[in-house]
Task: structure prediction
Amino acid sequence: MLQGLQDLGAAYVSFMNPMTLLYGLGGAFVGIVMGILPGLSATLAIALLTTLTIKLETNDAILVLICSYVGALYGGSRTAILLNIPGTAANAASCADGYALAQQGQAGRAIGIATSGAFVSTLIGVVCLALFTPLLAEVALQFGAFEFFWLALFGVTMSGSIVGGDALKGWLMGLLGLLIAQVGQESLYAFNRFTFGWDELSGGISLIPALVGAFGLAEVLTTLSDPIERKIVELRDSVLPRFREVLQYRWTVLRSGVIGVLTGLLPGVGEDAGAWMSYAAAKAVSKEKEQFGKGSIDGLMAAETGDMSSIPGHIIPSLALGIPGSAPSAVLMAAMIIHGVQPGPMLMIQHPHFIYHVVAMTTLASIAILFFGLFGVRPLLHILKVRRGILMPIVFLLCTVGAFATASRMFDVYAMLAIGIGAYFLRRRGYEMAPLVLGLVLGPLLDKSLRRGLVLSDGSLGPFFTRPIAMVFAAVTIFTILLYVPAFKALVLRIRAGLGQLLRGMVRRGA
Amino acid sequence: MSNAGHEGAHEGRRPARADFHDAIGWTALGLVTVIGSIRMDRLTQQNINPLTIPGLLPGLLGAAMVLLGLVLGVRSWRRGAMHETVAAPDPLARQQRKRVIIATALCLGYAVVLIGHGLPFWIASSIYVTTSILVFRRLSADPAERTLGKRVIAQALVIGVCSSVVIWLTFEHLFLVRLP
Result:
């Protein structure tokens, strides 16, 4: 315990030098700009910055990425509040109340709340990160092939069913991602699968070019294809962060912070889930329910804190299990691997100090957004005035560089093009990208775990269902899939209604 | 899961017929995968454990895709895919299609033709950015924006060259990252 605190202290001290702080602020700045631009996401910001920081020291590079992650979500909340345009999907929950407050002339107050709420909740998340990651990694050391098989499947299933409205389409995208991940040399016998004699495919489709294509090129095409250019008019900006309000609504902040971290822990469930669930929980217990959606401070606080605290929540399973909690944390994991740090249960053994460094980095990130909040983000908001005919080609330029830079080969650029164009058409037809990302990341793990598990159990499917932890994951995964079947869902709803009535009856009798 | 985009705004629920076409696509892809997996080398010469053949997971994934594709097909059929009238594409949709084809052509022109074949990065990128800016001004709905006077062309050139040079210098000289 004491050793842990000592390591944490050492980590904080190691970041206290001007160059490092500059990297942090720079990362946050880029993140905020990407977050402000509608359509550009934290995922793209992290993917592009990964390639920019390839030659930096591991700690500096990951610091830049984490700061940009936090910055992107924070930047998105600015446009959500001021312009009713969520910068990223995760900020959509802030739109209703934030924009309503802005229209009532309280834009400054709303922004101040967003800043202070974000700062405090990220810190809550950081505390959870510091406490739970080592614990989870300890537990994860007991995971075997069977557990990881179900965990990987659970991640893809969960992502598919939660994201977007259509679970079926989500799962199809997840399957597509898993399938694309199988292309190339497989890990057990170095056999080339689906390469059609093409040497360049032996390495498989790299994650960063694929993500840059799906989140970058697809977005560029979507934006440029829209014939109507949205003209941004009002640019009122803000003031000091409102810590008094944070104190006033401390229970909301605490509750949303914990909900955010818990939703973050679930693989595949993104920041927007954290925001919406916190919002719903706050509304359920609020004494001013009718205000929600019309400028409720409580609602805005809940959405913002739930959103930001899920960032550390996503990092926890990435570090401890090697299973990303969200698309941005999937890129973060890829970046760590590029820098020689293998996330997963072995992290505590191979790089025991790294987790504490990540804690320090996330703390720095929250201070960075506080810094930007204090100085107002108004100058950065002017970037919204740049015509998209100018901005999008520059973004595509960055995408090309991003795709090329990881392995310095043109094949990655072509892969980025193919996946980007495909992703554009899939998005237009109602398919979400997030399950694809998870499938891409978890595909190799699923493959290895399945085959190893079968070898260990000598062909028997028994251990997949009878080992205690595997049983739990299997049950949740199968339950999630079965919920899609209308008859099963109706049964579950009936049971839930029945239980609800029973509980209410018991409470009434007891009262 | 955080996903970028405002695609939801004009989508809503997809017409059932589109879903039906998608279902055919998914089922076909799944079938091709299953066939590919069955025909994949079982590595018998290496005496591997037959449970670990490379085609195991791809085959299962393909089968799952066929299953979900069929479910999608049935669902769209029940939602009336067969009886839906195909609406004529409205002018907005036609404009969108035109714009996306142009945007894609420009991107492909840059990434496939211009870079990677010896032309210095900053020159190729300047050409791309300048051309794109001018092309999209031409496509603009606002007639004032569509006129490409000397000033506009000069402005586009400056933006193109500056952005390309800045990106080139930042990546290659500041952060030491190789560019195409």
